[in-house]
């Protein structure tokens, strides 16, 4: 396959992934207006369970299958790739059904633990219903994941990208439409509306699977021809051995991708009980919705954008490590870390400076003071999320993936140990602080391992980070001043929050761009190509204006 075709495929897949992620974030803003914080908590109860069971059922199959197919296709053994596909589809159907049955049957037990044994805003029956409604999607999604991996293994990224976007689009449309109809048209219960919202995962998965089946039928003649014209003797490998090989590829991806769902899982089983014990029973579920469903979505926006830049360097990091070119490896890790710091830190500080208005702008005035306070503390965690994701990828790139798993376990143990005490002391903020502490422990371990095994020196990164911190501080203070001044001349409410958020974000972005551009920091971190493109656009506009 030519480099241009490979790059085009990678671009298509990346674009599809991030369009899908953006759709998966922005739907919560109108959804929050419809169901409020209590509805957000109920949605989180079901969806957090679904995320865990889905990760277990799929077991990182897209990446594992892609790697398996690429390996055997490179050997000219298309027959073994097809054997894996047939056996894998059967396995995914079985694991999907088992995951569905397990979540469906355990829903009452999980619901009691989630509610902390207390009667809160959402009843036990409501939580059970939502968990059972979302569990149906587990039957379909694992098979869809394997098909995506199979196409990616053939260097065909279009099917995955298109199916991801279609799946997410159908899910979001169904979710918002069903929620609106239940609440506004037929005046049904909040629980029923949220139950149908979680069913969107199943409807979206059906749409995504339909897209993949269409691609499969379209390309099957070509794929059959590859198998029929194979000249290489098929590899002698049992079905059990195929599954073992897949698991060796998939497990590291599973553990790293499970980080955020597992942290939320801890909260799901401890948050309400701890809040009740702290004398916060009346607001326990409302705060749960803010901490688990709404604020994390805002925080994940800069995380997704930054890790998209950082993770593009991971394949080159792997190549440099294999070639033992540690000088190049040093520069590549430096660039990855500096990119994360350069993009995520200002976004985090900007969210902190605009925490109250930003929460009100996106989610409305329902518990906006508490939501803004949670966002203030949660925003810096975005930087921890980003470094954890990138460090996990780097450790996999240098063939030390087991340490990525260990780091997750260490951080998770810290989260489990301190979560309840922190919530008792600091209420809803305690959950955020426990999450931050867990990630810090994981990162300290990861940074030490990368220094040891990749022979990485942090001196250049630390120097550059100090400069970024100074510029971000200037930006943050400026945004806070602008927000305060506008607040003096506007009446508190959603309109005021919208004005403050938009103007504050624009001012912060402009100030940060100017000082990083003038100081050459932008060029040093993002490269001459980026600054060159910006300069050409600015010059072109100036010429057009002067003409």
From TrEMBL:
Transmembrane segments: 21-44, 50-70, 91-107, 127-147, 168-186, 192-216, 246-266, 298-318, 339-363, 375-396, 403-426, 432-450, 466-489, 495-515
UniProt name for this protein: O-antigen/teichoic acid export membrane protein
Membrane topology of this protein: Multi-pass membrane protein
Swiss-Prot/TrEMBL keywords: Cell membrane, Membrane, Transmembrane, Transmembrane helix
Xref: PANTHER family: LIPID II FLIPPASE MURJ, PST FAMILY PREDICTED COLANIC ACID TRANSPORTER
Primary location: membrane
Gene Ontology CC annotations of this record: plasma membrane
InterPro entries per record: PG_synth_SpoVB, Poly_Biosynth_Transport, Polysacc_synth
Subcellular location: Cell membrane
Source species: Priestia aryabhattai (Bacillus aryabhattai)
Highest taxon in the source lineage: Bacteria
């Amino acid at each position: 396959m030519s480099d241009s075709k490979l790059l085009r495929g990678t671009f298509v897949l990346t674009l599809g992934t991030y369009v899908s992620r953006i759709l998966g974030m922005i739907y919560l803003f109108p959804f929050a207006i419809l169901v409020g914080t209590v509805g957000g908590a109920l949605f989180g109860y079901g969806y957090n369970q679904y995320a865990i069971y889905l990760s277990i059922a799929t077991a990182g199959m897209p990446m594992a299958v892609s790697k398996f197919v690429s390996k055997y296709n490179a050997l000219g053994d298309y027959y073994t790739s097809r054997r894996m596909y047939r056996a894998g589809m059967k396995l995914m159907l079985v694991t999907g059904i088992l995951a569905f049955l397990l979540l469906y049957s355990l829903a009452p037990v999980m619901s009691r633990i989630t509610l902390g044994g207390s009667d809160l805003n959402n009843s036990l029956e409501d939580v059970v219903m939502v968990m059972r409604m979302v569990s149906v999607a587990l039957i379909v999604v694992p098979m869809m994941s394997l098909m995506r991996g199979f196409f990616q293994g053939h260097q065909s990224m279009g099917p995955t990208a298109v199916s991801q976007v279609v799946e997410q689009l159908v899910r979001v449309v169904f979710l918002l439409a069903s929620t609106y109809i239940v609440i506004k048209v037929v005046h049904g219960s909040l629980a029923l509306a949220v139950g149908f919202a979680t069913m969107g995962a199943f409807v979206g998965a059906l749409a995504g699977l339909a897209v993949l089946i269409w691609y499969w039928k379209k390309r099957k003649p070509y794929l059959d021809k590859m198998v029929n014209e194979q000249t290489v003797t098929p590899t002698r490998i049992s079905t059990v051995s195929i599954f073992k090989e897949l698991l060796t590829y998939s497990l590291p991806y599973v553990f790293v991708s499970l980080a955020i769902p597992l942290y939320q899982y801890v909260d799901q089983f401890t948050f309400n009980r701890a809040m009740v014990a702290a004398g916060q029973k009346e607001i326990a579920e409302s705060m749960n919705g803010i901490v688990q469903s709404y604020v994390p979505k805002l925080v994940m926006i800069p995380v997704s954008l930054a890790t998209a830049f950082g993770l593009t360097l991971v394949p080159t990091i792997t190549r440099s490590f294999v070639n033992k070119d540690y000088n190049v490896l040093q520069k590549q890790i430096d660039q990855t870390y500096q990119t994360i710091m350069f993009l995520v830190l200002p976004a985090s500080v900007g969210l902190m400076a605009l925490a109250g208005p930003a929460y009100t702008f996106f989610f409305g005035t329902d518990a906006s003071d508490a939501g803004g306070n949670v966002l203030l503390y949660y925003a810096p965690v975005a930087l921890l999320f980003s470094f954890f994701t990138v460090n996990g990828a780097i450790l996999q790139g240098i063939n030390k993936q087991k340490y990525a798993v260990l780091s997750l376990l260490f951080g998770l143990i810290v989260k489990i140990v301190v979560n309840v005490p922190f919530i008792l002391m600091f209420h809803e903020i305690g959950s955020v602080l426990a999450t931050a502490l867990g990630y810090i422990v994981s990162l300290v371990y990861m940074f030490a391992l990368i220094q040891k095994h990749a022979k990485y020196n942090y001196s250049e990164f630390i120097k550059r980070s100090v400069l970024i911190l100074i510029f971000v501080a200037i930006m943050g203070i400026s945004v806070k001043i602008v927000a305060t001044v506008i607040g003096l001349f506007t009446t508190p409410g959603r309109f005021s929050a919208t004005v403050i958020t938009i103007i504050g974000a624009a001012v912060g972005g402009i100030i940060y761009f100017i000082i990083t551009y003038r100081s050459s920091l932008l060029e040093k971190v993002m490269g001459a190509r980026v600054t060159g493109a910006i300069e050409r656009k600015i010059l072109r506009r100036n010429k057009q204006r002067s003409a």
